[in-house]
Amino acid sequence: MKLIALLSLLVLTSAVHGGPLYPVEIGDRWGFVDKTGKLVVNPQFERAGTFSAGLAEVRLDRWGYVDTAGKVVINPQFDESGAFSEGLAAVKLNRQYGYIGTDGKYIVNPQFDDAARFAEGRAAIKLGRVFGYIDKTGAIVINPQFQGAGEFSGGLAAIKLGKGFGYIDPAGKIVINPQFEDADVFSENLAGVEQGDRWGFIGKDGKFVINPQFDAVRVFVKGLAPVRLGKVWGYVDAAGKFIINPQFEDADKFSEGLARVRVGGRWGFIGKDGKFVINPQFDEAANFHDGLARVKLGRKMGYVDPAGKYVWNPTN
After folding, report:
1. pLDDT tens sequence across 176-202
2. What is the predicted pLDDT for the residue at 1?
3. Strands 182-187, 174-180: parallel, antiparallel or unpaired by DSSP?
4. Do 122 and 141 form a contact (C-beta atoms < 8 A)?
5. Measured between alpha carbons, how far is 228 from 232 in angstroms, rounded to an integer?
6. Is 120 in contact with 104 (CB distance < 8 Å)?
7. What single DSSP character describes residue 138?
8. Which site in 1, 175, 252, 277 is 20 to 30 Å from 266, CA atoms measured?
9. Contact between 106 and 90 (Cβ < 8 Å)
10. What one-character-per-residue DSSP string does 185-200 give?
């Protein structure tokens, strides 16, 4: 189970003005380019995150937010910052987490030991050693009691209670008893769970749809999920049938019709037929979002389009 974590991944979302923007590093400073690779915001930040709700996290000694013109609209003041989700962003100040709105004002004052993003009107928070959930006003709606807490998806969230993982509804009622060794988020009405050192998929009634048989699994997207047998990954459909046979050293979910996979220590991208659309050539690669994928060659980062053509040549 992926427990709550604050810092956002480099998942690119559409900017408010002029389409999506993408963070790039030039020398020791970060700026932003558009989908054509044109530099829109000059490199000036120590770090730069992703745009959400028209704002991107940037670091200038501390973390703040800029708009799509690169103007600082929320002054750098936080020890950590997260992407906006459902109008709120988790931030850390003086070892405590709270939530701000897009105007930079606190909606929920810093008071938690950890905090996740909002999803379906709930956010997992940590007080002491236990996890609970708050609503968008900051009110605790599910008392801290769990040893782990996941994100709500499809009306359910994975939690750890005692030694087992199960699922709760938005009121905090346990709807699937804690019985699994590990559990992932629901996606397309299926969730990966571990039982007896093997992973399978359950439905929202808690019953297995795909029996535990895999060494690892990831979420379903567009009817396919990555699964691992031994040391190799392939893809199964919602009935558990292999559509793409196990052959990859690593594999991720499909995004915008392509999935990143690793072969021979290099990452490339396949289509749903399992054939390479972009041959393995990168040391690192992120999923496609808004038409581009972030890739790395050594320590240099660039962006490619779905044909594998560089829109932004690798820089550092």
Report:
1. 999 999 999 999 999 999 999 999 999
2. 62
3. unpaired
4. yes
5. 5
6. no
7. S
8. 1
9. no
10. EEETTEEEEEETTEEE
Q: 102: which 2 tokens?
A: 């897009």
Q: Each residue of 289-313: pLDDT tens digit?
A: 999 999 999 999 999 999 999 999 9
- Alpha helices (H) along the chain: none
CA–CA distance, 162 with 179 (Å, rounded to integer)? 10
CB 217 within 8 A of CB 246: no
Which tokens belong to 291? Answer: 């038409």
**Residues linked to residue 127 through DSSP beta bridges, in sequence order:** 130
Q: Is the whole-model pTM more than 0.85?
A: yes
Strand partners, 267: 262, 282
User: DSSP letter at 153?
Assistant: B
Assigned token pair, 76:
């750098």
Sign (positive/negative) of CA torsion 31, 32, 37, 39?
negative
Tell me the C-alpha distance between 206 and 173, whole Å: 14
Per-residue pLDDT tens for 65-94? 999 999 999 999 999 999 999 999 999 999
Sheet order of strands, 55-60 included = 47-52, 55-60, 62-66, 72-78
Q: What does the alpha-carbon distance between residue 112 and residue 126 come to, in Å, rounded to a whole number?
A: 6
Count of beta carbons in the 10 Å neighbourhood of residue 211: 12
